[in-house]
Amino acid sequence: MNISTHFLMVSLLLSAPTFAQNGSDQFKEFIGHTKADTRREFKVPNITGYKTLKADFHVHTFYTDGQLTPEERVREAWRDGLDVIAITDHNWNQTINTAYDRAAKTAAEYGINLIKAVEYTDSKPIGHINFLFVEDPNSYWGKNLKPDAAIEKAAKEGAFIIYNHPGWPDKNSSLSDFHKKHLAAKRIHAMEVFNAAEFYPVVIDYCKEYKLAPVGASDIHASSEKLYNTEREFRPTTFVFAKENTLESLKEAVKAQRTIAYAYNNLAGDEKLLREFVLSALDIEIVNKKEDKAVYLIKNNSSISFTLQNPDQFHINLPAGKTARISISNKNLTDKYDLLNCHTSSKSNLQLSFTDLISKF
Ligand SMILES: [Zn+2]
Ligand SMILES: [Zn+2]
User: Fold this and answer.
1) What distance in angstroms lies between residue 165's CA and the mean position of ligand 1's atoms?
2) pLDDT digits (tens, 9 = 90+) for 245-284
3) At which of 228, 245, 269 does a domain end?
4) How remote is the CA of residue 179 from the centroid of ligand 2, in Å?
């Protein structure tokens, strides 16, 4: 491509559709109408020593009950700003490996890390369980593979095992004897706190009690464009704090419970991780310092907005990608604010003061 063609291409991408300069009064063609393949910037901070990977561990294709091809699922994940997906078709047939193979080619082209997986599917109380990092997803097919045998087989091959949507479809997220047994044997490593538009607050407590990784997942069946207002919201996702952007690092991170679950601008997880994550997203600058008070400029570098509330119900909003200008008296600097969208248990939120923000870690 020569330089002038390059400039032409750039201007085509930036400008509204127009007519080509050439052509005649017999024929002209609209140009510049082709939509570029673009990725939305899903901005989340890294934390000390780790890179934050954005992962969707629960994705369906048209090989079971999803609506898109495996290739489309990967391209869509890239456009949604993700780094990692697991294709988790149901163990209803033996086409899961084919779905993975088709997705793998596109994943390599787009730089998406793809996890080989399957959703073991039974009715409650067993429910649905994702087995990630399995060698041969098709081998989990068949009604003869009973739940105990399936989860033991997955655990034996070192899978990362997630109990999915525990509150679906009966709105009851309590643990059955089956789950308690396999939790005690460390065969369940994670649970979905968020699945699509559902939130199971009690799962944050289970994560603490059983040392599980909290997960947010889309469980996407239709297209992302149909399901989400992609101009202003991101799909439910898991933030994974990994040493590197590789599957091996990712597996190490999830097994060490270094995750935060995300959905609809809400975060859930371990208090220490959440605290470092939120503080890493914010830059604070003090301007206009007076004897008894000062003005603080708080820049939120992430795609997640934060809402703070103090015991007097006073609210501070820190919108995604913007700088908030806030005047605070010195005597209020140590007041604790609840971050209403950051959940550290079923009943509590992350708490931060201005002193925490200023001193950071
Ligand atoms: Zn399911
Ligand atoms: Zn599913």
Assistant:
1) 7
2) 999 999 999 999 999 999 999 999 999 999 999 999 999 9
3) 269
4) 18
Q: What residues sit around ligand 1, an ion, with C-beta below 5 angstroms?
A: 128, 164
Contact 235, 217 (CB under 8 A): no
CB proximity list for 321: less than 8 A, separation 6 or greater: 43, 300, 301, 302, 303
Parent domain of 264: 51-269
Q: Phi, psi (5° rounding) for residue 17?
A: -55, 140
Element (H, E) at 326: strand 323-329
Q: How many domains does the chain have?
A: 2
Burial class of residue 62 in the structure, from the number of CB atoms within 10 Å of its CB (0-12 exposed, 13-18 middle, 19+ buried): middle
Residue 327 Cα to ligand 2 midpoint, Å, equals 47
pLDDT at residue 12 is higher than 50: no
* pLDDT number for residue 11: 42
CA–CA dist 43, 141 (Å, integer): 38
Q: Do residue 178 and residue 254 come from a single domain?
A: yes
Residue of 36 and 357 predicted with greater confidence = 357
**Residue 138 main-chain phi, psi, to 5 deg:** -60, -25
| pLDDT tens by residue, 105-151 | 999 999 999 999 999 999 999 999 999 999 999 999 977 899 999 99
